[in-house]
UniProtKB/TrEMBL annotation:
This is Uncharacterized protein.
Length: 610
């Protein structure tokens, strides 16, 4: 239907505007024929009449009978005629269909698929590094399992704090892409150098004789601290492997995921990221076991561990390069979500200002409590379990082979939990999901400690199952670790990362660096300090077991309280963000109505359908 503009008989558009067109008033001339018109949208006024600019089937209609001073028009969808260049854009509204594959938008898949592949590679590497680091430091000459608490407390924690301070500085001067590469490339280079340079030269660069002399002077109780100096390159590998979990997994990967996903996408896909990641656990566990058994086939005099280490570090370097490529692809091809524009802009802060800012936030403190509580809780159980594991499997070959089986079982259990976790998030929400991990850790931890405390009275019953009390403790501890880690990967980590999304960019970047890099090893070091204090006070780790169980109970209760507090704050932030986004969308959707000007005798314009 063609629009007809009239001004109470004073001005009319003829039926054939190509042949005849009256000069409009100055007011209309200013609106439609100004050399620099005010562009409000996408209708085109060309010599063939008033048509819509694009081919959308959507009809735009502005009609108000009450106010006769409004410019009123109705336009059918039509293609713009190529002949006439008189048209000026006045109004635009378009809607494009979204392509989907298996019910998921293509734009979402461009983010989710590479993120899942990246998580696969990162955790594949982490499993190899985690299983290898214990074998290196525990089975090395002049070392034992006693080195682990000292490493976590006096080496790992200071290096983690140092990295956080450096990362905070770099985050103020580097772009996100440059920051990512500046962090991950040194990791890749170190692990490659360790396998091919540092380990083959370990007999030359480790001060074995000097450490032996100090041990004779100071006594065997200083075996752990002296072992750090004795096998310093192995300890450096241990710390770098620990930092891979804190830095690459928590800061780099989840920081990228939080940057390019929305909360709705996170609820749907964050738990599923772990599906591919735990397939990586399964395969990497098989990889570790394969290279552990490979040493049996080598002849005498051959350092089988050196050959295995070179092969595994080559895989780690290759996976690291794949991670870099996927990060590049995501930054160049994955679409970024629309964020609320009303977030407060934070000024650049120094290191101390950043720490004060983070500590002043209740939200960040609750997040830190979750991470520290997990670290302490899992460490209280895990170190006790590893002491039993070392007693049951004293040789490096048996120890590493068992850890390969353990990683595979963890991957299978976590894969199953990932399938269940999406139902938990959809059905019960963030709060319930955040409380499952501490509850699982508490229940399984009670079972493990109970078996250690009452192992002797239960020996006849355990013997009927073909097990010794020690082997039963190893298996129950393994189950405890498997269930706890599967709950962490499928529920705890997604919950923690979702909590960062509503925060502003400055709090998100510096908060993640402080919480994930410092609080994670702080929790582990805190557990190690508690164990050291218990051992010195009660004489042995076994004598400390009842008290460690009590400490575990207190820590888990604090964990549950922080999760409840954070649930309330997270829900409030989500509502605030959704309200701001709705207000922004409402503001963008407002259609400006052009009021006719009464200039040079022109009256109101009426619209009649022709």
């Amino acid at each position: 239907m063609e629009a007809v503009l009239q001004s109470k008989g004073f001005l009319s558009l003829p039926s054939n505007p190509k042949n005849k067109f009256l000069n409009p008033s100055n007011g209309l001339k200013h609106r439609f024929f100004s050399p620099n018109p005010k562009i409000l949208g996408g209708f085109s006024l060309n010599p063939n009449g008033l048509h819509k600019l694009n081919n959308s089937a959507l009809k735009a209609s502005i009609f108000d009978k009450k106010d006769k001073n409004l410019f009123i028009c109705k336009a059918e969808s039509a293609a713009v005629d190529g002949g006439g260049g008189d048209g000026e854009v006045v109004f635009e509204e378009s809607e494009t269909g979204k392509q989907k594959i298996l019910g998921v938008e293509v734009t979402t898949l461009k983010k989710i698929i590479p993120l899942g592949m990246m998580f696969f590679c990162i955790l594949f590497n982490y499993t190899i590094l985690r299983d290898t680091k214990d074998v290196l430091v525990v089975t090395a000459r002049g070392s034992s399992a006693e080195i682990i608490p000292f490493l976590k407390t006096w080496v790992n924690l200071p290096m983690a704090i140092g990295f956080m301070l450096l990362y905070t500085k770099l985050s103020n001067v580097l772009s996100k892409q440059a920051l990512f590469y500046s962090v991950i490339v040194p990791f890749i280079a170190f692990f490659g150098a360790f396998g091919f340079v540092l380990y083959p030269l370990s007999n030359y660069i480790h001060p074995q004789a000097f450490a032996d002399n100090l041990l004779n002077i100071l006594g065997p109780r200083f075996l752990g601290p002296l072992a750090i100096m004795r096998i310093w390159s192995f300890c450096l590998f241990y710390v770098m492997a620990e930092l891979w979990g804190s830095v690459v997994v928590s800061v780099l990967f989840w920081g990228l995921a939080n940057q390019i996903t929305t909360v709705d996408e996170a609820k749907r896909f964050y738990p599923l990221f772990g599906l591919g990641a735990n397939v990586a656990l399964i395969f990497s566990g098989r990889t570790v076991k394969y290279f552990s058994n490979l040493r049996k086939t080598l002849g005498p005099g051959v350092d089988g561990w050196a050959i295995s280490l070179k092969a595994m570090m080559s895989i780690v370097v290759g996976m690291g390069l794949v991670i870099c490529f996927l990060y590049w692809w995501v930054n160049n091809y994955a679409p970024l979500p629309a964020r609320s524009k009303k977030k407060k802009e934070k000024p650049k802060m120094g290191t101390m200002e950043s720490l004060k800012f983070l500590m002043s936030s209740r939200y960040i403190r609750d997040l830190a409590t979750l991470v520290v509580a997990y670290g302490i809780s899992i460490n209280l159980v895990e170190v006790t379990w590893k002491s039993k594991l070392k007693a049951q499997f004293p040789s490096p070959n048996e120890y590493s082979s068992f850890m390969g089986d353990f990683s595979t079982a963890t991957g299978i259990a976590t894969f199953t939990m990932m399938l269940v976790s999406q139902f938990i998030f959809d059905k019960y929400g963030w709060g319930v999901a955040a409380k499952i991990t501490p509850s699982v850790l508490l229940l399984t931890g009670v079972g493990f400690f109970s078996l250690i405390l009452f192992g002797d009275p239960l020996a006849p019953v355990i013997g009927k199952l073909g097990l010794t009390p020690l082997l039963a403790a190893v298996y129950v501890g393994a189950l405890q670790n498997i269930f706890s880690k599967s709950a962490k990967y499928s529920l705890f980590d997604p919950c923690k990362e979702m909590a960062y999304i509503p925060l502003d960019e400055d709090t998100k970047v510096k908060g993640k660096a402080a919480i994930d890099v410092v609080c994670n090893p702080l929790g582990k070091s805190g557990g190690a300090l508690i164990q050291q204090f218990m051992i010195l006070t009660f004489g042995s780790l076994a004598n400390s077991t009842p008290y460690l169980g009590g400490v575990l109970l207190v820590i888990v209760l604090a964990w549950l309280a922080a999760a409840k507090s954070l649930d309330t704050q997270f829900t409030a932030l989500r509502r605030e963000e959704e309200l701001e986004k709705e207000m922004e969308r409402a503001g963008a959707a407002k259609i400006p109505l052009v009021e006719a000007e009464n200039e040079e005798g022109n009256g109101p314009l009426n619209t009649e359908a022709g």
